[in-house]
């Protein structure tokens, strides 16, 4: 396909505003693409390489402006191009209005050599030159990249230059998203859109999926599967509550939520893992690590690679988190993980400064079997089997429960261990790469707080046996106080010691572990929701209450009233 033909169709697509018309024009473009179909399916989205490929053009605006200026003539400088882009707001519009094609010399010829600047550019030639450009590195690479870009602009005109400039800067802006291309592939080659969707999930390559749909139809799409070394989009979660989870699923799968960075592990003891992601020149060809955005992060995390190679003896694709840990094994903040992810040089020194560990919570592929369609609980069983004894420390436990109080205990354990809380998952859910849905829920953060009076407590257990560990909360009424729930979550050992000292002068009586406390201390408490309950004298109960602090500025008479609790309950 001539670049001019692609540009003409891109211009027509950009002129449309309705989704249906855009999809129809993309369908026509794909149908007309012929041998250039895989390239066109990516270019129409403004993408040069497949999503799973970490190859980058590494072209910034300044370099692009220099190439445009050089192709535009001696009287045009890069600063002139930059000023016009700032004024117009579109590098494509600026490039389209220059008169290219008059520059001569070796650099005016394409990367293939020998083409006259009178020859019309083809999509295939552009793709070849951009791939050559992406491969340039080392001394003089900037000049070489500028020359390749100059050659392309020097052979383009009008809309060709418009979309070439936008493409190299990832600013296509013609209104074509992933959904439009997915639907256009289905329409163009008469295959089910569901089959296209699934194929895209496992390949992350619109070009490959388009070709398979055209050449092999629906059966060919169904035959596509995961490849070790080719990352897929991470399954995502949305915010939700425990009540949401138990209403929808009856039983929830509960996991700790780690304050780490998502990592997808690809491992094959036979080697060659780098081939699928365009990263085969690294020192390790058995294990690759990919971030949530499918960037290769293998090199900055050597201890994760070492752990995987020690633990796994069969091909696998695992999903999990990398967490930073202190010397005592306690988790460190997310920012410490980022210090490792961003490190390109002196990794050994960074490893000494920040220790990271892997926490695996899902298994997408094991020993030749794709597991995306298997239920979560079955995938977790395979994960446990894949990790074995050597990998057991990395296994994130999965708890099944239909009891809100038990789930609250798990949440408290996670918080006590220094993690963010819990994830709630549908035990029967499949793994849907790159999708955010209701099958994975991040427990909602507390959106309201209440100032409540402590009217009772319970002694702790185990290492907390000498401290008050659970606190009975009450709301103010005209006649006194009515109980609303207990809080034991969100409190560190140091805080428990301080709270025990604070409340000890106000203890009225004790009966075993139960302590009756004079209304004197006010806690600020967060919660997930307020529910009717016969358990407490107020008639309400706080779901998932969290201790936020002591309101030293408030007396019990200033605490929240039961009337406010009732109003909040009605607003839910």
List keywords for this structure.
DNA ligase i, domain 1, elongated, D-amino Acid Aminotransferase, Chain A, domain 1, five-stranded mixed beta sheet, seven-stranded antiparallel beta sheet, 572 residues, single chain, 21% strand
Could you describe the 3D structure shown?
The chain is of the alpha+beta class and 572 residues long. The protein folds into 3 domains: 47-168, Orthogonal Bundle (DNA ligase i, domain 1), CATH 1.10.3260; 236-428, 2-Layer Sandwich (D-amino Acid Aminotransferase, Chain A, domain 1); 448-571, Beta Barrel (OB fold (Dihydrolipoamide Acetyltransferase, E2P)). The protein is 39% helix and 21% strand. The protein contains 20 helices and 19 strands. It has helices at 3-15, 19-32, 37-43, 61-72, 78-88, 91-96, 123-135, 141-154, 159-168, 178-189, 193-203, 206-223, 242-249, 302-311, 334-341, 347-353, 376-391, 404-416, 493-503, 562-571; strands at 236-240, 252-257, 261-267, 287-291, 316-325, 355-366, 369-370, 399-401, 421-425, 436-443, 448-459, 468-477, 480-487, 507-511, 514-517, 522-527, 529-532, 540-543, 546-550. Strands 11, 12, 13, 14, 15, 16 and 19 form a 7-stranded antiparallel sheet that branches. β12 and β13 (480-487) form a beta hairpin. α1 crosses α9 and α14 packs across α17 (376-391). The longest helix is centred in the middle third of the chain and has 18 residues, at 206-223. It is elongated and about 95 Å long. The two termini are 58 Å apart.
